[in-house]
């Protein structure tokens, strides 16, 4: 059995998703956006569920200066829905993303060094 199993055309379903758009100018420096998101979650006392998700649709167009427009977001699931949301954050109760590639690692993590 292979250690990494791949499946195509899966639907990713996420609930209680907090996200923040990553501006095109910050795409190469996403650490700042991730840190800001995680600090906001911690300051508000929320708990996360699952991994941090980097979402990108690829190039969606070109701006007036000829630069590509890329819809890129940092996303994470929370254990509860948010009552008070602040900009630039967005909250979605449920998101379904079709046509995803699933990569599942099948091995004992304790053995990985």
> Count of DSSP helices?
1
Extract low-pLDDT stretches.
Answer: none
Report the C-alpha radius of gyration, rounded: 16 Å
Instruction: Give me the strand/helix succession.
Output: EHEEE
What does this structure look like?
The mean pLDDT is 84. Strand 2 and strand 3 form a beta hairpin. The protein has 1 helix and 4 strands. The protein has one domain. The protein is mainly β and 113 residues long. The protein starts with a strand and ends in an 8-residue tail after the last strand. The chain has a 4-stranded antiparallel beta sheet, with helices on one face. The chain is 13% helix and 54% strand.
Outline the fold blueprint.
Elements: E1 4-21, H1 30-44, E2 48-62, E3 68-78, E4 89-105
Antiparallel strand pairs: 1-3, 1-4, 2-3
Short structural summary:
It contains one helix and four strands.
Tag the structure with descriptive keywords.
113 residues, mainly beta, 54% strand
